[in-house]
Write a structure and sequence with these properties.
The chain has 141 residues and is of the alpha+beta class. Helix content is 55%, strand content 14%. Strands 1-2 form a two-stranded antiparallel sheet. The protein is elongated and about 80 Å long. It starts with 6 loop residues before the first strand and ends with a helix.
Length: 141
């Protein structure tokens, strides 16, 4: 992989508890997300330009559904919603980035005092103890 890859900044707008939340992240220009963003931007620009300006307004439909151009435009401008777990994860990521503690957390979790390392050690010792006891029980028979 080349060392000098071009980065693209993607800003997404979500609706969380009635508030507008902007999420900004940097990805490689060749990544799937960046290509999808450029594709969706080009489609959005052409789709709004293709709408005729002089639509007839004489006919109105009554009934449920509320379809038509108004509902289509409402769906285009609607922001996707985000849940509390996703919002918490985004807040934690932004905090780590702002404080510059990402590398420190990774080093701590990898070391001997890290939670994951201790958990793996305890599992290994438990398995080893179980095998020793199993061998003792089979040896008595």
């Amino acid at each position: 992989m080349p060392a000098n890859t071009e980065k693209v900044t993607i800003t997404q707008v979500f609706d969380f508890a009635g508030e507008e939340v902007k999420v900004t992240k940097e990805v490689d220009a060749e990544s799937k997300e960046a290509k999808q963003l450029t594709k969706s931007n080009s489609e959005a620009n052409t789709s709004l330009e293709d709408v005729p300006k002089d639509l007839p307004t004489g006919l109105k439909r009554s009934g449920a559904g509320g379809g038509g151009l108004g509902s289509l435009l409402g769906k285009l401008n609607k922001k996707p919603k985000i849940g509390t777990l996703e919002k918490s994860a985004l807040d934690w990521d932004s905090f780590k980035k702002k404080e510059g503690i990402q590398e420190e957390l990774e080093i701590h979790n990898r070391g001997k005092s890290g939670y994951l390392e201790r958990k793996a050690f305890l599992e290994r010792t438990d398995l080893r103890q179980f095998e020793i006891e199993k061998n003792l029980r089979q040896g008595k028979r």
